[in-house]
Amino acid sequence: MDFSYSEKVVTLQKKLTRFMEEHIYPNEQLYEEQLSQQESRWSQVPPMMESWKKKAKEQGLWNLFLPDSEYGAGLTNTEYAPLCEIMGRSLIAPEVFNCNAPDTGNMEVLVRYGTPEQKKQWLTPLLNGEIRSCFSMTEPQVASSDATNIEADIVLDGDEYVINGHKWWTSGAGDPRCRFAIVMGKSNRNARKHEQQSMIIVPLDTQGVTIKRMLPVFGYDHAPHGHAEITYTNVRVPKENIIWGEGKGFAIAQGRLGPGRIHHCMRLIGAAEYALEILCKRVQERSAFGKSLANQGVIKEWIADSRIEIEQARLLTLKAAYKMDKYGNKEAKPEIAMIKVVAPSMALRVLDRAIQGLGAAGVSDDFPLAAQWANARTLRLADGPDEVHRAQLAKLELQKHLVQTEVETV
Amino acid sequence: MDFSYSEKVVTLQKKLTRFMEEHIYPNEQLYEEQLSQQESRWSQVPPMMESWKKKAKEQGLWNLFLPDSEYGAGLTNTEYAPLCEIMGRSLIAPEVFNCNAPDTGNMEVLVRYGTPEQKKQWLTPLLNGEIRSCFSMTEPQVASSDATNIEADIVLDGDEYVINGHKWWTSGAGDPRCRFAIVMGKSNRNARKHEQQSMIIVPLDTQGVTIKRMLPVFGYDHAPHGHAEITYTNVRVPKENIIWGEGKGFAIAQGRLGPGRIHHCMRLIGAAEYALEILCKRVQERSAFGKSLANQGVIKEWIADSRIEIEQARLLTLKAAYKMDKYGNKEAKPEIAMIKVVAPSMALRVLDRAIQGLGAAGVSDDFPLAAQWANARTLRLADGPDEVHRAQLAKLELQKHLVQTEVETV
Amino acid sequence: MDFSYSEKVVTLQKKLTRFMEEHIYPNEQLYEEQLSQQESRWSQVPPMMESWKKKAKEQGLWNLFLPDSEYGAGLTNTEYAPLCEIMGRSLIAPEVFNCNAPDTGNMEVLVRYGTPEQKKQWLTPLLNGEIRSCFSMTEPQVASSDATNIEADIVLDGDEYVINGHKWWTSGAGDPRCRFAIVMGKSNRNARKHEQQSMIIVPLDTQGVTIKRMLPVFGYDHAPHGHAEITYTNVRVPKENIIWGEGKGFAIAQGRLGPGRIHHCMRLIGAAEYALEILCKRVQERSAFGKSLANQGVIKEWIADSRIEIEQARLLTLKAAYKMDKYGNKEAKPEIAMIKVVAPSMALRVLDRAIQGLGAAGVSDDFPLAAQWANARTLRLADGPDEVHRAQLAKLELQKHLVQTEVETV
Amino acid sequence: MDFSYSEKVVTLQKKLTRFMEEHIYPNEQLYEEQLSQQESRWSQVPPMMESWKKKAKEQGLWNLFLPDSEYGAGLTNTEYAPLCEIMGRSLIAPEVFNCNAPDTGNMEVLVRYGTPEQKKQWLTPLLNGEIRSCFSMTEPQVASSDATNIEADIVLDGDEYVINGHKWWTSGAGDPRCRFAIVMGKSNRNARKHEQQSMIIVPLDTQGVTIKRMLPVFGYDHAPHGHAEITYTNVRVPKENIIWGEGKGFAIAQGRLGPGRIHHCMRLIGAAEYALEILCKRVQERSAFGKSLANQGVIKEWIADSRIEIEQARLLTLKAAYKMDKYGNKEAKPEIAMIKVVAPSMALRVLDRAIQGLGAAGVSDDFPLAAQWANARTLRLADGPDEVHRAQLAKLELQKHLVQTEVETV
């Protein structure tokens, strides 16, 4: 049992922190302003982003998420966790280090399951940060928390697959640099329940791909990436675009979501840490009813509880990462499910306390609290709602103590 | 003890409900779209609003909030509660019936404390829905939860008051029809703590009044009304614009906030009811893991708890309204404080459950849940944060059982 | 809408309060000591109890629970609520006024469904407080939260019913004055699901009735009444002892539990009020870290939240009572279910805060907090666990918004 | 970062688990019965206890708590944590392995601060399990959460110290084998605030030591050890009985409480684990409303949340233990405070869910849930109430972000 970070990690933490302090924090509002001053918030990414990416690459702060050392930085998940946390302190930071969702998930899929040709065409530019990508899974017509509900079709016709489907919450599709989507759909409705699905690469400029609208999240548009509602109407792509093979969609999703989920959790911990810092500073600057807000008992309780909850979430995240490193993503499934339930709710509580402590400033955009809150709120739904993860955890727990009856499958 | 609504109330409930179903619900999204299609979301109010107002006035659904029968509908607070609740189901509805904050509060101030001349110039057009107004109290530089912290100056100079101050969260100031602000500031820093403040009417087109920016709430701009940051620099208004008299600002605030607070709570109950309806419908339409969402035990628990919490909040609101009617706003202070703590948190929980039950649709603008959530969240801060109300309640409770020591004043 | 208590109620409140202050509060610990000084805590009831009962009867504070004016005080449920609340402030008080469970429930059953002979033999002495009774429903072998699970047999054999069954949590059976049980069991396993059950009167001295042991509740034995595990082995009683008729057990249970449930809630509100009083007094008497506990922000928040939660629970209880009075117990089912969920949890929270505020004294028997807590805890289980009530509420709520699918029956 | 247990630990876990399964679990109820069958529950310890202790000593399962290898097993805190957890599954188990409070704390005090003579006379028999001891600190007249409130006197008079004081919650004093108390009191009221206190060894058979009564905890007497109210009236002991020296009481208390606190937390984790096991088994054995309790969504949520909360509490406990081992008890103060807040509340929630899932059986003594709950409840108060730990944590957190004002000392 050893709870210390290695020297390598501590060095990277320092570098990242310095980068954030020098470049990101002082320019977050400027980034947002530049975005708003454009004709459309979707037409262009403020140029400081590419400049930051160049700097990050030079400093070796690039693709840290990828344990695979051929393509990425070769850090373990346990090593990456405290670094990803730092990136999570700003909503615009992860992209700077090429560590942002959903591209990281897509890169992992291509590293693991992509053909050499797919890697060359799609993975390499993603790894270089030259293009962006999106992931098209959720559908408006069904409860997508149950992935077997998905209705889109991926049907082979000659040398091409034909895709028909209606998707939404395809995050990142609004980005002007976004080149392709990985689409999940059904290739064989007669196969076994978890072998009906396939994933396929669809270039966004293919005929029949239509972005209907960008969906807001609590009033935020999340430009320039955003969340798209997309229809795929008789979209034809070469059959070589299938990933891994027909019927592998569900298996890929399972593999893809593990790392993706824990990355979200790491970032949420950073967001919560930052919120706690903001709160601690602000309550020492302001007074009401004759004493510093920092001396109000209730606020002290918020601070203590926030510290306690952050610590616990961080430890659970690290344990999950450790199990992924040591035993593989599949073995770490219970821990990933746990942290996926814990981290968003923890972050929401910490952020909400900070908002309350700041008063009206907290709900505005003068501080990152409200925007981080809205983001964290989506993560109680994205990649599986809390309830699905809890049901899976209960199932696993009950199986340890099997008595007489079969437990329903989740 | 009689828990039934009078026939008068039941009739008005039906009329209001029909109005909402015929006019408001089907057009909420259109209203929002028209707003966005304008050059600026602040330049104009979609014309359907004035048309609705005309209809509402014709149907006697106008100024229902005002117990004073000379100026308003003459309903008691207890009678108004279940009607205001219905209006609260849509964020754009209260204005339709001339029952929207902060105008209602301003009208009450003018009815109670305004001179005949003030009434003629400012109250009458407000009562007619011809103009809008705003209320300028909160300041960015101090913890405004303690109203004695307020720093703006209102200083007599000859026949004029000169106002200097920096305000924000002046809600409604963005509305193109907004004509004046009621500004709170200090007229005498040497007076007793709660007699230093005055309120004064400031026409928004007076020289020295500058709207610096409109503040967002969780990404929402709340156009066309919005929340303004305003500077008042050597703003001069006739001394007749003072309300009630110098040093009366705190007393007016206390009187103003009672009804304002309970109206917010009434509307929140309506918002929660509507959210529960949306949830109940949606979970019967969707299935996951082989059964209707409506049959998932966890969701059933959300529904039951929501019903329970709404009922309790409604009863407490009605009790507070009853005490206001029977014993006056001052006597009802504890109940108003209680419901001001209860209603926003209750609504946030119910809305949050509905969001979770709807999945990603819940955080978007396809349903009113996220927007209502953001609005409810501000109400844990506006008109006094929860913590201040709780501290006052504790003080009152402790005084019932005085033992040996003095309790600190809140 | 009228939230005032009638003069009749206010007068009775005063009388009851004076009785409690004169007789009960000063002697609660003495009562407990006398009980412990006996050879067995089950052999005798401290004589002060009969003396109190005599006084209560003389003052007209007797059988207040019974709306039926032929047998009881003829108060409505709404009138009884604030009185029952006062009794709930002491765990030994309800018996003083002949208003204690499970006798009240049994008296109501006999008033409604008893034959003249049953009334003469069992109801009259109960109404006079001469004997006590118990109610035998819950069984150790099945989840009794689902009453259809009950396994005991009530089989007609000639002129007698033969009862075989294993029951526990038969409260009151330990009392030396306890004369009979109302036993629930199955008389016809082929009848429709809710017509298989019957209820029958079984004198406790009948052959085959064996009290196996008295069950503790969080270490409390609740002597002299207690909770018994009882076996009924070939117990024969005259067929006239059946109540209402064969197959009516479930219907009686439904009728019996409504008033019983709401009485529990009324008492819990009194227990919570008393706890809040104790807390408010104590925190003004003690200091830590240089200031009165009453000035610690966290404790002030406990006090405020307790007041808020008590008020809401009381209003919901009164509304439920009102609906029972005006529309009947069946119509009031949703409100009864709501308050049955709300009141125990509310009381547990308030009691727990008081315990925490008192420190170690709070968990001891120097204050009634721990004992009241343990009692309240059982009421999240007794008369239906929270989860069953919530499931019923959800079902009712979903039915208001029926969309396409059938909702599972609870 | 390494989350694995060492081989040494895994081996000891297995041995301990086997010991618990062979000896403790099957005899817990028998132990309780034997205690009750005695004339007094305080007169004697059931003989199986000494027999178990002998076996445990033979198997090397003895004094595992003591990191000091001269006197104890020499395990680090991190190694001891998962072992102590296993002992915590039964309320009577810790004594079997000589690892029970308050003896462990007293042994640590004597190891660290005792003179050779004190060690010989009091430490050696404690280490051998031949005698028991108690710790006399809390007083009924003051809020003992603030240790500076303590009023007892320890005054030098010639060669003796004279002790006068009124203590309660002196745990373990009821045990027939209890030989001495460590008493905390004031030796110099003119010294600096945290140097007024001393600790002294008082043999329980000294004249002037009177056990007034044993205090119950939620109805449990916790015999044969119990919690005593004790008066010390002109109690004279040799001056050599002072520990470390006059004025060192507060420093010793700080040192004593660190390990004591974390041991409580370790045991609570074990209690929660056991409760979760009981719940998982029971809900698979019972059905209601047509399906296994294990398939009710709400119960599945309880199970998942329990697993999640246990995991997080365990990790935080291990981290605290790790910091104690690596940097010392003082450096680990924040983590100890955190886990002291987290573990009791976590255990209370898990135990409460298990109770609810078991129905009435849960509140009885047929399962260890209610007794463990009552024990855990005291641990939100003992060794510092939650609020004091939270206030300290907030202070530490605020100091990291010092802005302008001084933060009040806790």
From TrEMBL, chains A, B, C, D:
Tell me the SUPFAM superfamilies matching this sequence: Acyl-CoA dehydrogenase C-terminal domain-like, Acyl-CoA dehydrogenase NM domain-like
Q: Which UniProt keywords apply?
A: FAD, Flavoprotein, Oxidoreductase
Q: What cofactor is needed? A: FAD
Among Pfam families, the record links this protein to: Acyl-CoA_dh_1, Acyl-CoA_dh_M, Acyl-CoA_dh_N
The residue ranges of the Acyl-CoA oxidase/dehydrogenase middle domain are 134-230
Acyl-CoA dehydrogenase/oxidase N-terminal domain: which residues? 11-130
Organism's domain of life? Bacteria
List residues of the Acyl-CoA dehydrogenase/oxidase C-terminal domain: 247-395
**Record's subunit section:** Homodimer.
Q: Its family?
A: Belongs to the acyl-CoA dehydrogenase family.
Q: What is this protein called?
A: Acyl-CoA dehydrogenase family protein
Q: Which organism is it from?
A: Bacillus spongiae
The lineage, from the top, is:
Bacteria, Bacillati, Bacillota, Bacilli, Bacillales
